[in-house]
Amino acid sequence: MQTTVKSAIVFEGIGLHTGRSARVVVRPASAEHGIWFRRTDIALGDTLVPALWHSVEHSPLCTRLVNASGVSVSTVEHLMAALAGCGVHNALIGIDGPEVPILDGSAAPFVRGIMARGLRRLSAPVRAIRVLLPVSVEQGGATARLAPARTMSIDFHIDFPDPAIGRQSRRLEMSNGAFARELCDSRTFCRKADVEQMQANGLALGGAPGENAVVFDGDRVLSPGGLRHSDEPVRHKMLDALGDLALAGGPVIGAYTGDKAGHALTNTLLRKLFATPGAARMVVCDAAMTARLPGTGLDWSEIPRVA
């Protein structure tokens, strides 16, 4: 069955890129509603922004959604990953600013909020996007691929010159609460030189470096407390990929592989998937298929207890 949150959940914080405070309220929604954002700070016009792949405006730093009237919501990937990872299929998300708060840089605060409220089952079967043919995209030495599979899995590879990051790879089946258990507490990361350049250009203004992102400088981790996982960067890339794939319009049943891929490339992959005849089909999940989807089997005790 499709699910939604039992009651409204409030999150407040600063946007990483804009430096503006924002209040986010995740509210229950009916079956087949899907995920929508509503800009509560805008009084006139179309303030609803669908959380769908064709609403993405490519940005190098985050995932930004824009409706036909030009109303936008950016940095949606961590919240979208949390909704997908908790198995939430329907929600109306009110936000009083242009950017979802970065919080601690991971999806863990969103996951804890959702699980603390609990989920409500709706009287409609889950509809998922089953990948039927392999599709892939490549740009600037980065690649992203989707292939047919019984479950959703994410296989990611990164390679950075900084010794503290280096080459990292990880693969994970996204069932049985794996997202919350293995990925949700992994934070966004950047290099010290990149932070300085972004701040010089008026970006990355929200909070002090290290509070909401892991900052690397060569072979050093500058963030207080160090890493939550030895391979936290690649885990966060997997978190981002789940959030970006959640914009497909339903859970994706297929194997995703990313090699140095970012938000824009994963969205390009979804666009190619839906533009390729016979590459994907919307299916109604039976009980066995639903049991293999992200979020099914999630237990509160498995959510990492992080700051």
What does this structure look like?
The protein has 307 residues and is α+β, with helices and mostly antiparallel strands. The chain has a single domain (3-302), classed as lpxc deacetylase, domain 2 (lpxc deacetylase, domain 1, 2-Layer Sandwich). Helix content is 21%, strand content 30%. It has helices spanning 77-85, 108-117, 178-183, 192-200, 232-245, 263-275, 287-290; strands at residues 3-5, 9-14, 21-27, 35-39, 48-50, 56-57, 64-66, 72-74, 91-95, 119-121, 127-131, 135-139, 142-147, 153-159, 167-173, 189-191, 214-217, 220-221, 252-253, 255-259, 280-284. A 5-stranded mixed sheet has the order 2-3-9-4-5. A hairpin with a 2-residue loop joins strand 17 (214-217) and strand 18. The longest helix is centred in the C-terminal third of the chain and has 14 residues, at 232-245. The two termini are 33 Å apart. The mean pLDDT is 92.
Please give a quick description of this structure.
The chain is of the alpha+beta class. It is 21% helix and 30% strand.
Which sequence of strands runs across the widest sheet?
2-3-9-4-5
The CATH architecture classification is 2-Layer Sandwich
Largest sheet: 5 strands, mixed
Q: Per DSSP, what share of the residues sits in E-state strands of 2 or more residues?
A: 25-35%
- In the CATH hierarchy, what is the superfamily? lpxc deacetylase, domain 2
Report the total helices. Answer: 7
Tally of strands: 21
From the helix content, strand content and strand pairing, which structural class follows?
alpha+beta
Kindly, what is the distance between the CA atoms of the first and last residues, rounded to a whole number of angstroms? 33 Å
Q: On the 0-100 scale, what is the average pLDDT? A: 92
| Order of helical and strand elements | EEEEEEEEHEHEEEEEEHEHEEHEEHEH
Rg over CA atoms, rounded to whole Å, is: 18 Å
Uncertain runs: none
Amount of helix: 10-25%
- Count of domains: 1
Query: Rough shape?
Result: globular
CATH class wording: Alpha Beta
CATH topology: lpxc deacetylase, domain 1
